[in-house]
Fold this sequence. Notes:
The complex is a heterodimer. By secondary structure, chain A is an alpha+beta fold. Chain A contains 14 helices and 13 strands. In chain A, the strands form four sheets. A six-stranded mixed β-sheet of chain A has the order 1-2-3-9-6-4, with helices on one face. Chain A has a three-stranded antiparallel β-sheet with strand order 5-13-10. In chain A, a hairpin with a 6-residue loop joins strand 11 (376-377) and strand 12. In chain A, 48% of the residues are buried. In chain B, the strands form two sheets. A two-stranded antiparallel sheet of chain B has the order 1-4. In chain B, strands 2-3 form a two-stranded antiparallel ribbon. Chain B has a single domain (2-63), classed as Alpha-Beta Plaits. Chains A and B meet through loops of A and helix 1 and helix 2 of B.
Amino acid sequence: xxIVDELAFPAPRPSGCxxxxxxxxxxxxxxxxxxxxxxxxxxxxxxxxxxVLSDRRFSADxxxxxxxxxxxxxxxxxxxxxxxxxxxxxxxxRLRRMLTTEFLIKRVEAMRPGIxxxxxxxxxxxxxxxxxxxxxxxxxxPVPSLVICELLGVPYGDHAFFQRESFRLLDTTxxxxxxxxxxxxxxxxxxxxxxSRRGREDGxxxxxxxxxxxxxxEVAVTGLLLLVAGHETTANMTSLSAxxxxxxxxxxxxxxxxxxxxxxxxxxxLRYLTIIGSGLPRVALADVELPGGTLVRxxxxxxxxxxxxxxxxxxxxxxxxxxxxxxxxxxxxxxFGVHQCLGQPLARAELQIALSTLLxxxxxLRLAVPFDEVPFRNETVIYGLRxxxxxx
Amino acid sequence: xxxxxDQDRCCSSGQCxxxxxxxxxxxxxxxxxxxLQDRPALALLPALRTAAALCPGGAITVTAPAAxxxxxx
Lengths: 392, 73
């Protein structure tokens, strides 16, 4: 069980199917050495991953000794004000619960007509001047960006700025100075925006800025988390799912014939494509024996790999294959435990609407380049596509 | 059959509402889980077990009757 070696994060996907987890993660629990020389457990098994993410003896607070710092760029921001993603309860719950009513199921359901309008307008524009077109730049990225901007109260007109800086922030290969400048540019932007929204009612940023129990830096990092997570994740899930459908035309046909399968299909895309490339870091606060038998000692870092967990054959028989009729709901693509994705109802609604509309309106959608020329991106924390050239 | 929820553990994921809307709702003031009925019909047991398994906070407990016991309310 105890293999010591080094892994880059995210691990490369050198060959084979680019939808599959990196080969380096396909192993039992292992001990490995991080870039900074510190050791860390690599955990890839479903039950182990689920336990680490839901057992409060594992901390998500990056300031705790032993917490695995996966890249030089993460090290650079270690002493900045953390978002609730990097805090434990009760601080985590205090900050997160300020936002839970924004993502209620009923509230997100009420947003569906607005999301549908954004999806239709993006497709109208793309169809208006194509084919060919880049489905990432013209559909998969603008749709969630517009939605999160509206929700936060961020002007979409600034999207070129915040999309560029978000990409630089998440680029694991960027020099530390680039990470720092991206973080400072985005937090300065959101601080200024939050200050200007005080006294207004429209948007999450204004509602957070109005609170007396939050500092302006706390408002800014919370806004930053929502803005980055709100568009990068859904954009990459949308474009990767569209590509997976193009590679599985029989399943695309099935979804066109039976659109009621779309919600289940979205769960299967989340399971099969799991875009959080490197897995989630935690540190043990006590000695814990995991279901797979690994004993993690207090102070040891762990990396919980979601993509391999979601291919667990015991839970998802035939899980190496995409099957839109599968019951995939137990996937861990949104994480698990108290940090599970806050925006998951919104992500589901956006993916369901975007993919069903794409299938319905562009039944002849096809790749405009050979599959092996589609540019995947592996250097950021979130796996995905740089571009998706399509015709119809 | 008996269902309980622990609001301190609730993460407001909404998985329970999507899985068993007859039994769970979300409080519009704080986003936390609301139990609509604590002794639901036995026919809902599979959905309730799924809801409990999907709950990221482990906030849902379902106590099913032993075989041959009560038939659910």
